[in-house]
Write a structure and sequence with these properties.
The chain is mainly alpha-helical. It has one domain. The protein has 5 helices and no strands. The relative contact order is 0.05.
């Protein structure tokens, strides 16, 4: 039987709607937001820097762009595959 104007909600939706999120709970306790603070260790910061992407070499990008536009770029699939494997090791 359907009730007009009523939509069936899943158990997850009902549970999610019944629990206040962390921000609402903090505000209810008189705070302005989540109280947890996280500080990264020096080792974690070093690891983050090590995995950060390098800035692109814009001169090389320009040379490649020109070579592609002029039809001068020669693609060596074996060299590309070899480099991809080296990066993963």
């Amino acid at each position: 039987m359907k009730i007009p104007g009523h939509t069936q909600r899943t158990k997850i939706e009902r549970r999610r709607d019944s629990k206040p999120d962390a921000t609402e709970a903090s505000r209810a306790e008189g705070g302005t937001g989540p109280a947890a603070q996280v500080q990264m260790s020096d080792a974690a910061r070093a690891l983050e820097r090590a995995h950060a992407p390098e800035a692109p070499d814009m001169a090389k990008v320009a040379r490649l762009r020109d070579a592609i536009a002029n039809g001068q770029l020669k693609i060596d699939p074996e060299r590309i595959a070899s480099r991809m494997i080296q990066e993963e090791l």
